[in-house]
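wait is this the right file?? whatever heres the structure
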């Protein structure tokens, strides 16, 4: 099969591309290599992908529809799209909101148009986020919960993506699955995520900022488990149920276990053999105190079962971090 993966130089996109290549698929990667975080990290991921047969890259911004169409004009039939390109980060949306308008709204619409006009496309899987649950207080978060009270612009754009996708599934019968990711971590991760920030600071002998005075819980999900869920979703497009039942579905994809932030920090300290100096701070705007995924739907439909506890995943991330940075 030939699969189009947007955000292929990103954290999840890189790992999904690796898994698809390993099973013999052809992968067309799309990425604009923006500088939201270290471009050298993105290039290092891409170098590993480009060293394998079956991978090609189109460097283009998905928010520029004409450039996107031109870049993809010479490709033949594709079986699926894994759309992961987006402007990530809750806190960054407070200072650069227009980046989210372009990447997450215009970019998502553009990918829907690509999918709509691509003959033979079986399925488009796209990234949503646990952030859509916003101020919900009932745990675990269920896909049946209302998600119309976002507390960050990032979350609002992801909910808008879900609505646009539902429209295209209804109007044009484009089969789609939206995946609400829960705090993904692991080797080749993002430098703006807490696990990376804490590791870097502890190794540098610098204090770490612990928000909400440490009273936070997260459903930390290891990258290998995430990729398994993404690929299983890709391989199982939703059925078209006819009028009123579009080929569309939403899944939570998490570890199904809310872990205290302080336990995560403790595991990083153990793996590094160093204690962190902690600066306790209040909750940040747009953040939420707890996330916890109800994964019953994806477990029932696709047999998804995360298998990597943070006791295993965090040391694996630390090992990769030390090796990548030579520390």
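ok assuming it is, sequence goes like this
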């Amino acid at each position: 099969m030939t699969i189009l993966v947007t955000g292929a130089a990103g954290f999840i996109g890189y790992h999904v591309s690796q898994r698809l290549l390993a099973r013999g698929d052809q992968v067309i990667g799309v990425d604009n290599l923006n500088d939201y975080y270290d471009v050298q990290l993105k290039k290092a991921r891409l170098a590993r992908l480009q060293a394998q047969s079956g991978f090609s890259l189109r460097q283009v911004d998905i928010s520029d529809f004409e450039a996107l169409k031109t870049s993809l004009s010479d490709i033949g039939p594709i079986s699926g799209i894994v759309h992961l390109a987006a402007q990530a980060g809750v806190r960054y949306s407070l200072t650069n909101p227009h980046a989210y308008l372009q990447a997450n709204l215009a970019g998502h619409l553009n990918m829907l148009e690509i999918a709509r006009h691509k003959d033979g496309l079986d399925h488009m899987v796209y990234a949503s986020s646990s952030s859509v649950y916003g101020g919900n207080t009932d745990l675990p978060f269920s896909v049946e919960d209302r998600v119309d009270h976002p507390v960050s612009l990032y979350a609002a754009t992801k909910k808008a993506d879900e609505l646009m996708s539902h429209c295209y599934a209804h109007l044009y019968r484009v089969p789609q699955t939206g995946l609400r990711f829960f705090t993904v971590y692991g080797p080749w991760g993002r430098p703006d995520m807490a696990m990376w920030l804490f590791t870097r600071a502890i190794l540098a002998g610098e204090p770490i900022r612990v928000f909400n005075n440490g009273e936070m819980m997260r459903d930390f999900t290891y990258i290998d488990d995430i990729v398994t869920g993404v690929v299983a979703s890709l391989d199982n497009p939703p059925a078209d149920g006819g009028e009123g039942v579009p080929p569309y579905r939403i899944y939570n994809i998490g570890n199904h276990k809310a872990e205290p932030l302080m336990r995560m920090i403790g595991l990083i300290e153990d793996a590094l053999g160093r204690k962190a100096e902690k600066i306790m701070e209040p909750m940040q705007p747009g953040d939420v105190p707890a996330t916890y995924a109800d994964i019953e739907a994806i477990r029932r439909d696709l047999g998804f079962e995360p298998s990597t506890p943070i006791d295993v995943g965090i040391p694996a991330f630390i090992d990769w971090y030390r090796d990548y940075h030579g520390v």
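The longest strand covers residues 123-129. so i think its the right one actually
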